[in-house]
Amino acid sequence: MPSSIPPLPGLTRYTWWGAVPDGLFTKTQLDREGLKPGSDPVGQVLYHGNCYAPLYEKSAAVPKRRCSPAQRAVLDRARELQYVCRRCGDRRDYPLGSGRWCEPCSYAAELYAAHAKAQRFAREIVNDPASTLLVTAAGPGEYAKPETVAVIRVHDQELLHEGLAGTYGTPERGALLDRLDALLDGRRVVHETDRGPVSRYPAMLVTPPGQHLTSERDNLHAWLRPHRESGEKADYVSRLWRGWFAWTTNEWSSTAGEPWDRERGTLVAWDRTAQAADDARDQAALLHRIAGGTEPVWERARWVVDGQGEPELPRGRRRETTTTA
Fold first, then answer.
1. Which of 221, 243, 285, 299 could form a disulfide with 114 if both were Cys (CB 3.0 to 4.6 A apart)?
2. What confidence tens digit (pLDDT) does each residue in 14-70 have?
């Protein structure tokens, strides 16, 4: 409603309701009696301090057009459908809005959108002949030292480098860094992980022993920064797999995570050993699996379990920000 409605020129103004003559009514008052104005306004009354409402003669009003039984049935049906999910058919005790999707279906659709986005990103990597996967393998533990390093070309899964990581500050480690600088120059570099539980970031190679890894990167080595076109498109195998696999046990969540159980902890779809070359082969094969889409995702993925098929989020429920892949 506007903050003010100016008076209409040339019409008598009444500054309070008690001054309005009998027989003059506003549109709202006529509507309550099943009538609508049949002539031009003959006056206006001030309300809310700065708004004027036109007044009409009730004697000139005409009956409002009534809905036919068929029209009323259509309206009643449309009103009833506002409570029924368009996708799964469940009825809610509140209107679902223009999209007519219940929350579980909306979350399933958002998870599927993240799954499809991860597959698109994986296809970009697999189809890029220059893209490489860099794996820095280490044993378990918060301060584990890198033991081996491997670089594999994702497109044809050819191993470009494998060897020991050496010790921080030694000529062996320096030679490895020089080798990686030359090998990865100008290439799209994919990293294994963007989070724990085992720290295997390539930044381990330039981090002094006993210090925590931070989000800061050594500007001397461009390959420490994964390729990205946006914050959501940083190339990490774990991020792509997490979005594609779509694991979540929370019906009211649209965010996927790594599967876990009480006994084995967090699970991933590749081995984490001290042999970087073997792990790199597993991860490159996984990227091809994600890109190909030839194998089913998690058998309990939301859109698989509910039996409604692969959903597409309705336009009215789409978020402005994209889902992390």
1. 243
2. 999 999 999 999 999 999 998 999 999 999 999 988 899 999 999 999 998 888 889
